[in-house]
Amino acid sequence: MNAVLRHRLLWPAVILAALLLTNLAFTDHFFSIEMKDGHLYGSLIDIVRFGAPLILVALGMTLVIATGGIDLSVGSVVSISGALACLRISGMDDQNSVSGVVAAAGLALVLSLALGAWNGFLVAGVGIQPIIATLILMVAGRGLAQLITDGQIITVNSGPYKLIGGGYWLTLPFGIIIVLAVLALTAVLTRRLALGLLIESVGGNAEASRLAGIRSRGVIITVYTFAALCAGVAGLMISSNVSSADGNNAGLWIELDAILAVVIGGTSLAGGRFSLGGTVLGALIIQTLTTTIYSIGVPPETTLLFKALVVTVVCLLQSPAFREKAFHRRRRPVAAPPAAEEKVRVPA
Amino acid sequence: MFKRISALLLAGAVTMTMAGCGGDGGSGGSADDGKITMGFSQVGAESGWRTANTKSVQDSAKSAGVDLKFSDAQQKQENQIKAIRSYIQQKVDVIAFSPVVESGWDTVLKEAQSAKIPVILTDRAVDSADTSLYKTFLGSDFVEEGRKAGTWLTEAFKDSKDPVNIVELQGTTGSAPANDRKAGFAEVIGADPKFKVIASQTGDFTRAKGKEVMEAFLKANPDIDVLYAHNDDMGLGAIEAIEGAGKVPGKDIKIITIDAVKDGMQALADGKISYIVECSPLLGPQLMDLAKKAVKGEQIPARVVTEETTFTQEQAKEALPSRQY
Questions:
Q1: Which CATH number fits domain A51-297: 1.10.150, 2.60.460, 2.60.40, 1.10.3470?
Q2: Is A166 in the B-facing interface, judged by CB distances under 8 Å?
Q3: Which stretches does DSSP call E strand in A119-159?
Q4: Which of A247, A306, A316, B151 registers the highest number of CB atoms within 10 A of its CB?
Q5: Domains of chain B
Q6: pTM score > 0.90 for this model?
């Protein structure tokens, strides 16, 4: 029991459950999942499906934040990747050719990788502060996406491309399958191999890690490249979901949602530790909150205020210091507060 | 570097116009063949609608024999003010622009006034208290667009006795088109209590949001009869959501949108959208007409509404091949 109470992911999980139950109170069939046209259909499926791009972007962001950095450019990468793929596909003679779609998606992902490597180079190679280095691409990237789309919305009509973000496979939305695959891969790479430890040690103290024989520069470039790759895949999903690329609006402000998801999930912005499961929960909370606003009918003028209130409550509940103050007197056996969230310094 | 080059070019342009002006100094009094110089400052190139708007102005300037000086403000007011000042220095005959934002124009408009250059606003308004600062405002009437959408709806359901459940996808919260289209629509359908807006949320004028919000609407409200979307793109996103829910857009759920861009017209011709109210970017010919009158010193109305129409599914099939944007 104590172990459960003390678990880091307890509070995000409680909040997610509370949000879902709120929905149930307003919409009777909120939890029902049925089969429709050979695939699963229901509000819960929607939450995961629309949340899929955010989960991906947030996964990449988690690793970047774990190294003590931050990546503001992911939203721009989302729009660039979708724009490039749609541009290639719209120029094909047969938009339904699978090889053509794979080539277009591949090209978009290669460009995303290059953009990520550029971020990594600026941060680790040149030594620019991450927030500034990635701000460059955040601002310029949307211009690049506009340039690719020529300021227009590119509409494509391609069955195979539609599958990525709007299609189904084995009754599940294809986007969810992609997310599960990326999540599994990331978990194995960081938690079964030493990579996770290396990332955390670079986040704890880059210089000390270097002295200990870790190539921090390589690690940093890797995480930024990975974050951009995740954003690239998310960009394909978002544009595929509506079969069109909108350079102006695709992935707008997704970087902020992703950072919020990471923080709600209990990863410290100071770097040095991270939680992939927490990030996934955080992203799901954000998407559930959005869905809740639509289904209980919060007026658009007050949507942002409503979101802000919920997020404030979430963050307060997440803070051990606040919980200590608020709940200390009432409970008799005080559950020991989880380890403080301050930066974990790795001794040199 | 780029700045220096553009400054050089600008200087060149100024001297050339001066030379040009010297040639036809008495253009004000001459007949229609007298060449008018117009300075036009565009907001930017953020959407297909805007691009069509730019093209319309450029094309109709050419065919009306107006010498057009065009500049793109890239969504920045300071660029626009700079452009207008340079037009004043170049002594153009008339200045037209689509203001990026509503406020902060008084100073530069006064400069134009004291240089005796008439100013025409296109597409978007300014909030200056002194309306003598500009000759006229040419643009769409968003409230009227909302009313047109509402009127079609009341016509289409006039024989129905049952309540009509409407969901609304609003534009970006707080923007003029969103506020006005909502108000105009509500005004018309408010006359009959059987029309009920059961859910109304913002879809930010984008396809992705339109789809996401519509998915949630469909889950929360099993009986939706009508969707009213403030632009085509949100409607197009919602169509995908409706199809995903196993319903037939245009049949099970009637869809009304505003704008009439090409993708929207295609969906209308395919029977997925039921009715589109046009919000036309093609105001070039009207602008040139007004500009000529303004230069001659003729009286022109302070508010000119863009010539716009509406499209049913049949009309869309006819209009689609010649749709420019």
A1: 1.10.3470
A2: yes
A3: 153-155
A4: A247
A5: 2-140+281-308 (3.40.50.2300), 142-279 (3.40.50.2300)
A6: no
